[in-house]
Amino acid sequence: MEDVAFEGTSGIRSLELAGWRRLTAEMYAKVRELSESDPKLAWQRYRETRSEMFRSHPQSPLAPERKVSFREIEYFPYDPAWRLRVPPALISVESERRVIDVELPEGRLRFRRFATVSVEVSTLTLFSVEGYGGGLFLPFKDRTNGSGTYGGGRYLYDTIKGADLGAGPGSIILDFNFAYNPSCAYSRDWVCPLAPAENSLPFALEAGERAFT
Asked: Cα(4)–Cα(35) distance, rounded to whole angstroms?
């Protein structure tokens, strides 16, 4: 196969974005493997890798001037109580499969309510991303938003980017120590779909990424 030349800044950015997504998928693959035996060590490796990507990768959501002083992403201390293996009995598949449309600069993104997952005394909606390839998406809010964490909420699952801790017929793993900020938390140049009101937890969930300052 002949080499393909990508001309102009848009072609270069497309390759950079592909590289960012590949690194993200590889990072989560390593996390899934290691977390089966040592979840905390997997989390530590994840923190190091993600911070390094933010410092050095051209697709980092940080503006170049912010990279100069950036050291690492801040997290709450690891809490094993927030690593949940949710069995099928606590996952309710939505019968209506209602749709939410989100308008982004590049077009409309459609999310279909796929299932609800029990978390403590509340539930979170797990969305299926409509369109080519599909994917599962789980954004959420909690009582730390706007103080300890980003005001718009955080993400836990985005399988389009390979960002998941494990899902299969037997269970789905929700490890909130890996909850992360959307890119718009780091720069106004980014526009992100945020958690809907139905995914607001009625308590402070002190695990995962903190607010970026």
From this structure: 38
